[in-house]
Amino acid sequence: MTTVHDFTVDDIQGQPVNLDRYKGKVLLVVNTASQCGFTPQYKGLEALYRKYRDRGLEVLGFPCNQFGAQEPGSEQEIATFCSTNYDVTFPMFAKVDVNGDKAAPLYRHLKQAKPGLLGTQAIKWNFTKFLVDRDGKVVARYAPNDTPESFDADVAKALS
Length: 160
Hints:
By secondary structure, this protein is of the alpha+beta class. 26% of the residues lie in helices and 18% in strands. The chain has one domain (4-159): Glutaredoxin, CATH 3.40.30. It has four helices and six strands. The protein is globular.
């Protein structure tokens, strides 16, 4: 059975990262954007990461420009924005497509493993979040308007 650990993605500096390095960790995978109404969620994501990283949480941010062209910058501009404006310390990755023919294989897997409302697989907007257990299995999907604070208890349960 395919798990999140079977994928390799590029980090924000363009270096390949095999996600099996996160075996044994709980992951929160998020498609992000710098010019979105949900962009302030970076603050909540960072707070969740800092609260639980010592217990095994990793937040993985994947910039995406597919929704309203709200992530137009280069990877370097994105990294600088996240660090400067939200003091983001969780791992950020190269810009990806999450829908369509060019969707990143990781996102194809996430959407298939945990469809959205009414079984639709498409990501509706920036800041859709997937919770992945320590074995790499996708256990929950959260809508863009679900704040990190709203599913804190789910993260804590996954870590226990």
